[in-house]
Design brief:
The complex is a heterodimer of chains A (186) and B (137). In chain A, 68% of the residues lie in helices and 0% in strands. By secondary structure, chain A is mainly alpha-helical. Chain B folds into 2 domains: 3-70; 78-131, no CATH class. Classes of the chains: A mainly alpha (186), B mainly alpha (137).
Chain lengths: 186, 137
């Protein structure tokens, strides 16, 4: 459910207050970025898909009844757009772009920042190799932290399917990391 | 390693297990070094996935979104307007046409005896020889 602050911003945005909508964008862009980049990887389309997510939300402001939180609603749009993009390009032309800044502020758990960076890079590349439906689960559950019920709701899947696919996704990710990097995470 | 126990282990990260399942997993963990290692590894992997996620677009993202939101909708060209008008009219005609066709077909099939495709299209005695009477050299 939405907080009072979110409801107020939403109401203002519906009345045409662009500053209020910009605040919504700024608050939720991190979650949308994690979703889109998690599914598509670092590619040229990421920024466009992110923008399109918010533009579609803006156009549907009057239809959005607030049954779910804004974050959940935006994530659903972002997931659908990202999966459509994957289908469209058939994963054939991944274009890595330079200059993407990375948030590694939470790398304190590792003694060596470079080492942490390498591990995270490997894991990100491993995720890119997963099938789209497994990738979507990893992004929603592990990256965005949605509960299994919320994840099931967003993907319109039974909770049991979400749980079994999550187990499959983790096993597969571990196997990919072992195969491609001869790597054990400890 | 027992596949069911491994599944149970992964599930334990995502939901509360039933007391019986919890007990089964605890017992298996106590008796298997490999399973304990797998639990550690799965936990680390999940942490790394969460911490390694990139949670930002290029700088100025919200400005780019607002520029798109504030931009006036692109004006339709004359050709686009004409196409839309045709589509609008065609959709209405196609529904009526399909309805009439269905009624006629149903009427003919229920009220006519011995109807065949040949009768309908009048092609029963047509052959290539009649259609293309090429002179033989």
């Amino acid at each position: 459910m939405m907080s009072l602050d979110e409801q107020e911003k939403l109401s203002k945005a519906r009345d045409g207050d662009h500053a209020a909508f910009k605040e919504i964008v700024e608050k939720h862009q991190g979650q949308v970025a994690a979703t889109v980049i998690g599914i598509l990887g670092f590619c040229a389309e990421v920024d466009d898909i992110g923008q399109e997510t918010f533009v579609q939300f803006y156009r549907s402001l009057h239809r959005f009844r607030g049954d779910s939180s804004i974050g959940t609603y935006l994530t659903r749009i972002a997931i659908n757009l990202s999966l459509n993009e994957l289908k469209r390009r058939g994963r054939r032309d991944k274009v890595f772009i330079a200059g993407f800044h990375d948030d590694l502020g939470s790398a304190a758990a590792y003694e060596d920042r470079e080492m942490a960076n390498d591990i995270k890079d490997m894991v990100r590349r491993g995720i890119e190799k997963l099938e789209p439906e497994l990738k979507a689960l990893i992004v929603l559950r592990l990256i965005n932290g949605f509960t299994t019920q919320e994840t099931a709701g967003i993907l319109r899947l039974p909770v049991g399917t979400v749980l079994s696919r999550l187990a499959r996704a983790q096993t597969k990710l571990r196997d990919i990391l072992r195969e491609t990097h001869d790597f054990n995470i400890q | 390693m027992d596949k069911r126990i491994r599944k149970l282990l992964y599930r334990s990260f995502d939901e509360d297990l039933a007391p019986k399942e919890k007990a089964r997993l605890s017992k298996a963990l106590a008796g298997s070094e490999e399973l304990r290692r797998l639990r550690e590894e799965a936990g680390s992997l999940r942490r790394t996935v969460r911490e390694g996620a990139v949670r930002s677009f290029r700088p100025g993202f919200s400005d780019r979104v607002m520029a798109r939101v504030e931009a006036p909708p692109p004006a339709e060209s004359g050709a686009e307007q004409l196409t839309k008008a045709f589509q609008w009219v065609f959709r209405r005609f196609v529904v009526v046409a399909l309805l009439v066709l269905t009624v006629l077909l149903t009427y003919n099939l229920t009220h006519t005896r011995g109807i065949s495709a040949g009768d309908v299209y009048y092609i029963s005695d047509l052959g290539f020889g009649k259609i293309l009477p090429l002179p033989l050299l």
